[in-house]
Specification:
By secondary structure, the protein is α/β, with parallel strands linked by helices. About 65% of the residues lie in helices and about 10% in strands. The chain has 20 helices and five strands. A five-stranded mixed beta sheet has the order 2-1-3-4-5, with helices on both faces.
């Protein structure tokens, strides 16, 4: 009984708070102060001669408090570099509805806290009148963009709680949701994809009878899963695969708890393994770059388990296989990657490297000609990685001078770094012998061209 009264009292306070932003509340407060001061003026006069100044301070104080309550928005602390998530749910000011809203918010925050999402994400629950402004504005998106200039968040979920009669079964609650995403600059195609998924993963409307508490709890769970999915997706495209994986790991199984799973969530669920494969593949490469080979192999295994057709992970597996001296497996990984390249030609660089390594020079020169005539969006990064990889090998193994030809070729035709190409080709000719005569003929011709361009003799 006591707890119920406290809940009602808290809901009553929320109703008062929900009205504080109105002009009526400002006027009512001022009128109350004026009437109160008038009733005690004779008494106060005996002690404070300049009582008018005191009254003015109270009036200004109330006005400042009202203005602060009406316009103040929370701010996402940029120094903490946390993901900002804003929840703005509007409810009309009835005690029952306010209780439901408070319980819904509390349950959602509890779920996010239990999974430690709040360790890297800040959750902001906007006051009722801000949620109403978003809903009632001509363009909710524009209103959110205006609000976000002050908050600096990344994700918005807004909606409404309504209560309607339902024949003989009693009152029924309706919860509606919409979403909006702010993220690091990405392509329009990716931005549209995120917006589309956010729209799909958020249930447009959830309804349940007033007596069915489980309906409310389920709605909080679905919103919680939606937040995990979309925050992880945006973290991934914003180049933060560690947070993305932390949010997506186990999410597919969480969706599968709902039987039957709503149609609008089935496509989202089926995307999760693909995303996890990309995320773990990215994390594997990061561990490899930092010389953590055990962790790199663990995440690579997970990546290919989630999606054995992952093109970039198959190419990375070729590198891992080569490092472990499993040359045949490395070649097979490149062949598999070629099958799933989807028109991308990055695999051809890996294939060319193996031809250099196995001294198949006739074949590799044909591949080099293809590489010379083709262009790729990420050529600069690819060539940089190839150079670093080959130079690392040459630091400890000088028996493969043909690798200097390989990086010299890329410096000349792809990076257009002529001085670097000159150095690479000269190093190749200095260390090579007649066994690489086919490559030497080419390098000699390239050196002649380079020296002519540099006005060298």
């Amino acid at each position: 009984m006591f707890l119920e009264k406290m809940a009602n009292f808290n809901a009553f306070l929320q109703i008062i708070e929900g009205k504080l932003h109105t002009i009526i509340a400002l006027a009512a407060g001022l009128i109350f102060e004026i009437l109160f001061f008038a009733s005690i003026d004779g008494f106060v006069e005996k002690f404070i001669p300049l009582r008018g100044a005191l009254y003015l301070i109270f009036i200004l104080g109330w006005s400042a408090f009202w203005l602060f309550n009406k316009s103040h928005l929370p701010q996402n602390n940029k120094k903490k570099r946390k993901v900002g998530i804003v929840i703005a749910i509007f409810s009309e000011n009835e005690i029952e509805r306010q209780k439901l809203k408070a319980d819904f918010m509390s349950k959602l925050k509890e779920m996010l806290s239990q999974e430690k999402i709040t360790d890297f994400a800040e959750i902001f629950f906007l006051k009722n009148h801000f949620a109403e402004e978003i809903l009632e504005s001509n363009s909710s998106m524009q209103k959110i963009e205006e609000i976000n200039k002050k908050i600096g968040a990344h994700f918005y979920v807004w909606g409404r709680i309504k209560k309607r009669p339902n024949d003989e079964k009693g009152e029924k609650y309706f919860l509606t949701f919409q979403g909006y995403v702010f993220h690091n600059p990405i392509t329009r195609e990716l931005s549209n994809e995120i917006a589309k998924d956010f729209s799909a993963v958020l249930p447009r409307e959830i309804s349940f009878l007033e007596r069915e508490f489980r309906g409310f709890e389920a709605s909080a769970k679905i919103l919680h899963l939606a937040i995990k999915y979309i925050v992880g997706y945006a973290a991934f495209v914003s180049q933060n695969p560690i947070i993305a994986f932390r949010l997506h790991d186990g999410l597919r199984e969480a969706f599968n708890v709902y039987r039957p799973l709503p149609v609008y969530l089935q496509d989202i669920r089926n995307k999760i393994p693909i995303l996890i494969s990309e995320e773990t593949g990215w994390i594997a490469r990061w561990h490899f770059q930092n010389n953590r080979l055990i962790e790199a192999k663990e995440f690579l295994t997970r990546s290919l388990y989630e999606n054995n057709k992952n093109y970039s992970s198959l190419l990375f597996k070729a590198i891992i296989d080569f490092n472990d001296n499993r040359i045949h497996d490395s070649i097979n990984s490149i062949s598999n990657a070629e099958k799933y390249s989807g028109g991308d030609f990055t695999w051809i660089y890996s294939k060319a490297f193996h031809c250099f390594w196995q001294e198949d020079y006739a074949k590799v020169l044909k591949l080099c000609q293809k590489i010379k005539n083709q262009s790729h969006p990420n050529e600069e990064a690819i060539c940089r990685e190839i150079r670093e990889f080959n130079l690392k090998i040459l630091e400890t193994d000088t028996s493969k001078p043909q690798l200097y030809f390989w990086i010299g070729f890329l410096s000349y035709f792809k990076d257009k770094n002529i001085p670097q190409a000159l150095e690479d080709f000269e190093k190749f000719e200095q260390l090579s012998n007649e066994s690489v005569a086919l490559l030497k003929n080419k390098s000699s011709a390239y050196l002649t061209e380079i020296k002519r361009q540099m006005n060298l003799k």
